[in-house]
């Protein structure tokens, strides 16, 4: 397996700049490094954000499908990034054919001036995040605008991706890995989670996948993927976009806040904001606890394959008791 470090990522980024007719010597500043390397840069008085994608994370067709989705939302007036077209007319370029790191996809978007992200996962779980319920109402409206715009634009996924459906969440081979592989999950706690997975399959199976409940979603609406700007919230990073339940986006927005002492206020505000744009019915509210727990389980599955990484260890230790609590609550209903 080829490991790409910051130096290699910067070299790949500079190779890509030429594909957008930008100066390869422009100064690059690292903004984020997780699945992708994300840099900021300026050229000719314009500010940009450039992503060097993790090798093999998505095929070219899958990435093209993701960017088409963002463009469809942008065309409907949703607050999302504005991507720059490469020389060949595609929304990204491929570089590194002669680089030791190998072939990588790189895309470029206009930088969104912002005052930082909506929040962060760690203070949410710790219960120290100081957010106003009005923030969640605005976030709910944004999530609903994404789902409404998807329907209005007529967008359909041209390329299959790992769907956030029943099997993708809690099937024999979940999309993000098996949460039961976490070694710390033992005894009665493990039994509670196993029972909850069975309940999730039962509840979501009955809920079904009609178009008004299930379709293309962002799927990673965490606090760090929402920017605060002078014009309101902006949704970024569609890496995990695929077909899924619309409520999955709301579950992702709330999951890390479930241990927070103001969780009830935040949940009610999020749903109120969402329903001010796009109505929900009683079945949506009834099934939400199952989708919320299913979302949490995906992070455990993700962590099982990344033991030793700080974020994975945090999920497998600090956040794990919250999963057990939600599991017990679900099966007790």
Automatic annotation (TrEMBL):
Belongs to the pseudomonas-type ThrB family. This is Serine kinase. It comes from Leucobacter muris. Residues 34-276 form the Aminoglycoside phosphotransferase domain. Gene3D superfamilies: 3.90.1200.10, Phosphorylase Kinase, domain 1. SUPFAM superfamilies: Protein kinase-like (PK-like) (SSF56112). The keyword Transferase applies. GO terms for molecular function: kinase activity. Keywords: Kinase, Transferase.
